Amino acid sequence: MNNVPTLNDFGHDPLWISIIKAVAIFVFLMLGVLFGVWTERKLISRMQHRYGPNRAGKFGLLQSVADGLKMGLKEDIMPRTVDKVIYFLAPVIIAVPAFLAFSVVPFGPMVWMFGHKTPLQLTDLPVAVLLVLATASIGVYGVVLAGWGSRSPYAILGGLRSSAQVVSYEIAMGLSFVAVFLQAGTLSTSEIVAKQASGGTWDIFGLSIPAPSWYVVSLIPSFLIYAITMLGETNRVPFDLPEGEGELVGGFHTEYSSSLKFAMFMLAEYVNVFTVSAMAITLFFGGWRAPWPISLWDGANSGWWPMLWFFIKLVIAFGFFVWVRASLPRVRYDQLMAFGWKVLIPLNLGWILLAATFKALRMPEADRAIILTIGAVVIIGAFAIWLRFDTVNQRRREAKAAAIEEEFEQLREEPTAGGFPVPPLDAPHYHGVVPAARLNSDAAKEVTSGSN
Question: What string of DSSP letters covers 65-122?
């Protein structure tokens, strides 16, 4: 189709059309933040049987505008001990990359704009998806520097959490794109969307099976892993540990009063939500292409209509973020790190190996015997490594259980150590390690009699 843009269609627009596109994207994101805040508060309130914003304007639509004006006009209180340069630069460093990442997101096909045929996309690169990952990594520096420049214990802890957390989930996020690159054969966002126009056929054991066009069907493990990691990328519940209000007051932005700098942090968070949602749509849900059965209409994927389909998909993706926030509690920090390193990354590596094997088997000149042999050797080797680590972990668990049992025996021999309501100062600290079920009736009686 001649209306599908390629890399050769970029870089030929007049400067004024590029400026119009950039301003349009900026306005779209700013209005998206205003309505996104209102939508999130309304949806969560309805889930909790509340009304939500309903005073400022019709249906409370002006509540986000009122909050923005308040933060823009409020007095900026700056602590004396902060590093002023880093303190001022941190909100900028976290906000600017959030807007830049949206420059490679395709909104639609080739259209006529003021007499010029141009793609509905600001720009594209042969490595456009890597640009998004790079800008996301730069945004983390804003969080780290905000905590460091604040010179506050809670803010520094939030920044350190973010720096350690990004290594855990961003590796898994990058690996979730690899299967898409293998399937599409390109890293360009516009060409990835073009590859999802038709899935073609799969030749499996001599049978030609129609392949799904959207990669969310054929690459469902990659999408599920990306859906988890994009919650950590945006510091949203249940992975909003750099903020952690219940533990770190406000985390990395504790020392930022509710002023314009604080508003930039909130702005960057919502723009990042739109960015990761747009990347999920582009890589896995056909981008701006119309879903079935709308796609049966010949004009569904031409003209300006694809912008509507893209917007509807973006609203649904944003609703997913709101639903997760209203449903799940914040996880523990060690649980997130263990989940990223021990679950997401190994699963991703295994899935990439499997996807690459199927990709190689579909090649007509491929030697299937050699490919299957190599795949079997790798799988057996991975299973042996996992079994080795599992055996080591089992020995550690047994050693820990033996140590707990030894401490429990000491408690039975010295019942005053479990005094009630306040144990003696020299009593051993158990921190809830010994389960209550392990206290049999005789031991419970001894502890009770000893405390009395």
Answer: HHHHHHHHHS-----TTS-HHHHHHHHHHHHHHHHHGGGG----SEEEETTEEEESSS
pTM: 0.80
For the beta carbon of residue 195, count every other beta carbon within 10 angstroms.
20
Q: Choose among 369, 342, 34, 350: nearest CA to 176.
A: 350
Q: DSSP secondary structure string, 423-437?
A: --TTSPP-TT-S-GG
The string of pLDDT tens digits covering residues 310-346 is 999 999 999 999 999 988 888 888 888 888 888 898 8
Residue 48 DSSP code = T
Structure tokens at 151: 């010179």
Name the helix (H) or strand (E) containing 204.
strand 201-204
pLDDT tens string 231-244: 888 888 888 888 87
What are the respective helix, strand and coil percentages of the chain, to the nearest 5?
Answer: 65, 5, 30
Burial of 297 (0-12, 13-18, 19+ CB in 10 A): exposed
Nearest to residue 171, comparing CAs of 431, 352, 405? 352
Q: Distance between CA 239 and CA 157 in Å, rounded?
A: 15
Name which of 158, 137, 122 is nearest 19 in CA terms.
122
User: What is the token pair recorded at 116?
Assistant: 């010029």
Q: Domain ranges for the chain, please list them.
A: 7-334, 406-451
| Residues 87-102: b if buried by 16+ CB within 10 A, e if exposed | bebbbebbbbbbbbbb
Q: Is 52 helix (H, G, I), strand (E, B) or coil?
A: coil
- In sequence order, the β-bridge partners of residue 117 are 112
295-301-304-310 Cα dihedral, nearest 10 degrees: 70
